[in-house]
Structure formats: C-alpha cells, structure tokens
C-alpha cells in the first residue's frame, strides 16, 4: 500500500499499528505541494508519474494507493494504479 500524506510523523502517530505482513510506503508531499499549490493539476500528473516509477523500482505487483490530502485529486494516480494492477493480472 502507498499512502500520500502531508506529514509522515502525524500519519505514523495516528496509525501506529502497522501490519508487518504488508509493505507500506508513506509518501510525504508537503514541501512540493506548497511550492506547486498554484498548479495542482501539474503536480498531480508529476506525482502520478513518480508513483509509477516507485511501483517499478519496488516491483510492486498489486498496488493500492490512499491519500490523506483532501486538496489532491487522485484521478491520475488511481489510473496509474489501475493500469499496473490490470497489467500484472493478465
């Protein structure tokens, strides 16, 4: 599972029960989100591309992506995850 957050520490403080049987990747976007807040659409595309690369690097077969950031549109990111899950299933 990949979780997009604006603070890793806050996320870990709130979700301290981690499952050792499942891989968890927490992505903190706070600094880049602040810098690109005037162009969220571009930021979302860049994040989707970066997550696609991350999936490849970690050889993640089936991917679930969650987002803790309300202002972020996850459509592009979910497209990347769906495409990866579909390609791995076939």
Structure, described:
It is a single chain. By secondary structure, this protein is α/β, with parallel strands linked by helices. It has one domain. Helices cover 51% and strands 12% of the residues. The protein contains 4 helices and 3 strands, in the order E-H-E-H-H-E-H. It has a 3-stranded parallel beta sheet, with helices on one face. Helix 3 packs parallel to helix 4. The longest helix is centred in the middle third of the chain and has 18 residues.
Tally the structural domains: 1
**How big a fraction of the residues is strand?**
5-15%
What count of helical segments does DSSP give?
A: 4
- Mean pLDDT across residues: 88
Portion in helices: 40-55%
The total count of strands amounts to: 3
**How far is the first residue's CA from the last residue's CA?**
20 Å
Large-scale geometry: flat
Strand order of the largest sheet: 2-1-3
Low-pLDDT stretches? none
* Rg (C-alpha, Å): 13 Å
Structural class by sheet pairing and helices:
alpha/beta
Helices and strands, in order, run as EHEHHEH
Largest sheet: 3 strands, parallel
Question: Main attributes?
Answer:
alpha/beta, 90 residues, 4 helices
Offer a quick outline of the entry:
With 90 residues, this protein is α/β, with parallel strands linked by helices. The chain has 4 helices and 3 strands; from the N terminus they run βαβααβα.
């Amino acid at each position: 599972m990949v979780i997009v957050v604006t603070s890793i520490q806050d996320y870990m403080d709130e979700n301290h029960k981690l499952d050792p049987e499942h891989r968890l990747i927490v992505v903190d976007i706070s600094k880049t989100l602040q810098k690109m807040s005037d162009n969220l659409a571009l930021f979302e595309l860049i994040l989707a591309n970066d997550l696609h690369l991350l999936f490849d690097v970690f050889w993640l077969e089936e991917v679930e992506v969650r987002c803790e950031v309300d202002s972020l549109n996850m459509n592009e990111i979910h497209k990347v995850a769906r495409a990866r899950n579909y390609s791995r299933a076939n």
